Amino acid sequence: MPKGAFRYLIKHEIIAEMGRIRQGKWIWFYAVFILLLAGASVAVWGYDENYDPSYFLFTAYMFPFMIFGFAVRTLKREWNGGTSGWWLTLPYSRVLLLGAKAIAAFVQIVACMVVYFAIVMLLGVYSRIMFGARVTSISGLFDLEAQLFAVLLGIVPLMLVIGLLIVAVRRSRMKWLVPLLWIVMGVGGNLSGWMMTGGGGLIIAGTEKELALISYPPSLWIWIVPVWAVAALLFAATVRVCNKHLQA
Amino acid sequence: MNDTANVAIRAEDVCKSYGSRQAIRNLNMAVPAHSVTAILGPNGAGKSTLMRMITGMETPDTGTFSVLGRKPSWELNRWIAYLPDRAQWYSHHMVEHALEWARTLQPGFNEMRARDLMVTLDLDASMKVEGMSKGEEARLMLALCLARDVPLLVLDEPFSGIDMISRERIVAALIDSFSEREQTVLISTHEIAETESLFDYAVFVDKGVAVLAGDVERMRAERGSLQQVYRQLYG
Membrane-crossing residues (chain A) (predicted)? Predict the structure, then answer.
């Protein structure tokens, strides 16, 4: 393998995605709309006694589904863009080719998560300035964000690989498996939600006192091991489909 | 042609099916090394399936298939420059990015040669792929293939949907390229009249079977031009 080819493949994927974002003006429209909505929510809802900026973290449920979407798009692009012939005949193993796409999608989701948590933190700081000790402290919010970030890092590989597998199977002679894989994706999404609430044991509370008690149960971190093992198996299945079963 | 060194691609009783449709049936052929070989036949004859088998994108259901003396695989693709059928280039690239892509990912890519070809084919490094005409995009992809110093060049329908001027430019570039290097070249095309002068060897395929194969000069002497042979076989 020429020096830097794998790194180049990852860069190539990220640049393709950035180009899409630059061209899709509607993405910026949504970004501005959501930010305005969040700002307006704090301004209006903040005066309610039960308001707390940590509630915004419920929207983190989108990330497992976002990574699924990124994975679908990164692979589907090769066929939709007419470049699958170039990509599939590169003199590198399917593990490397798919691995580069997976890493690129992972880098993108991590970047999105960092931006997201930074925005929630800014809303938290603003809320603290505006409403005082009634809302979660900065350190409490940071602690909660750090835990949620770690749980998301544990979950996203599974949803990422399900996305890759669905596209590969859709382009193979095993198309009949696609409905089953959508069910797997649904289960993965639910599992993600379950893990993000600490197996049902985590309640994002509204007061500093309650938040101080919030911590993901240690058993949750053990769950990440089988989740990654399943992700690895599904990745191996994706490689196998791309090696043996793709259809013209 | 039993000598492995003289045969670039060999198929023995190769079959390939997609569900109930047999794309290739008992295909037997031997493409001579260092020749420019035409793979000819009507739509659905199995030409593209054959091309994809060479690059390991398809595997035969039965039979023996070898390329450069080995079983097709991703490893072998480092020795093959392949222009896929109905291919497009990455729309977010400029020509310069395409050169970087090939330089980084394609073993044997000769950048100097690619830049010369770009000039010959009237392409500028600052051109964006998005916004290129179909002919310009085809010329870019062909230049990237021709610039590789590899023993096997496989071009699947390089002229499909391209205007006459672009076709002429491409044929001229091919003639220059083939005269300079000792490569085995395989081209599948429907544009027989314009490309006939390129070929040393021809394989006519119909419904997945090689119905006629041989030296083009001999075919011409015995049966007329390739276009006439095509009409005799499929007309």
Answer: 27-47, 53-75, 95-126, 146-168, 180-205, 220-242
